[in-house]
Amino acid sequence: MEDVRFYDFECNLLHVEHDIISCNWMLYENQVGTFEMHVPVNRMIVQVVMQNRYIVVVQGDKQAIITGKRLGKDAVFYGKTCNWILSRFYITEPFNTDELYDKGWLESKDAQRICQYVFEEGMGRIENFVFEACGGGLGDVFLENTEASSVLSLVEACVKQVQCGYEVFFDVKNKRWVFRLFKGKLLTFVLSEEYRNCYDVEYFEDIQDYFTGGFFGQEQEDGTSVLTKIPSALEGIYAWETDLAARTEQEAKDNLKQYCVKRQTDARICNLAYGRDYGLNDTVQLRMQKGEFFTKEVQRFVGVHLWYEENSVGEQPVLEGEVA
């Protein structure tokens, strides 16, 4: 098991712990992850943690901020990955990225530029906390703030539109915090039970939320609403309709696209290592064959659970995708 290092928020080393009962990490590509560590209650690190409120723990390339602690038969430290710090800062001024772009305050609507704007508005005053751009564009997005919103919530709303990842990196070497976005790569290998890199593969399909047409209340110039239909793509008994909860025809058509057949393939991954064979936001093809039924889909590594215990060390990634 890798040692766990403890730092204050200024990147000063407080302690290095070797005697660890267990350590669990849950990492995500575009949301806050978790950390939990158990150590003997008589270890020096317990005193260090109890006397310091602002601590970052580092185990290899994994990092978290300690947010809770409990003393009992052993000492337990709870934490959130470093992007949690973005939830501590808010933007209270309303904005609309289309309007900012039209006024010339933004030179691009790319997700990276929008996240940079959000970061600078909410946290630009903090010393030793910087935005670091990744190479290339990530895709245009639209973001609107109508009330007081945390930097975290705005960033997550932005990156989910282009399915990229983001992180806050605690840069010990340069004594700074770094906020950055990243885009994973398309992996060249294939996941399948045949290749012995996954098992317990299951396919799921559901039509309960599937509709082929619908209706919405279209707003008129006088403020009234007229019930308007979006014609069904099918006829007769197959013409399934629903309330599209929209105000315009385009919004209704966009909402109808969400009422599709839900298809999902799940699998347990084996014989692959996080950081070596795959990383967060990477994509891979997953194939499954059960009898005469065959399906394949591109899935994305959206998270990974890593655990280090006395008699067990392992990992299990979280995949998400759509059937091709």
Features:
Phage tail protein beta-alpha-beta fold, 3-stranded mixed sheet, 5 helices
Sequence-ordered SSE layout with sheet pairings:
Elements: E1 4-8, E2 13-17, E3 22-28, E4 34-40, H1 44-51, E5 55-59, E6 62-71, E7 74-81, E8 90-91, E9 95-96, H2 97-102, H3 111-123, E10 129-132, E11 144-145, E12 149-150, H4 151-162, E13 165-171, E14 176-182, E15 186-191, E16 198-206, E17 213-219, E18 225-230, E19 241-243, H5 249-256, E20 262-269, E21 283-290, E22 293-309, E23 312-323
Parallel strand pairs: 10-14, 15-21, 17-19
Antiparallel strand pairs: 1-2, 1-5, 3-4, 3-22, 4-7, 5-6, 6-7, 8-12, 9-11, 13-14, 16-20, 17-18, 21-22, 22-23
Helix pairs in contact: 3-4
Q: Can you count the helices?
A: 5
Query: Main β-sheet, in a few words?
Result: 11 strands, mixed
> Roughly how many Å apart are the termini?
39 Å
CATH level-four homologous superfamily name of the largest domain: Baseplate protein-like domains
**Overall residue-averaged pLDDT value:** 94
* Total domains: 4
Task: Flag low-confidence runs.
Answer: none
Helix content: 10-25%
Shape category: globular
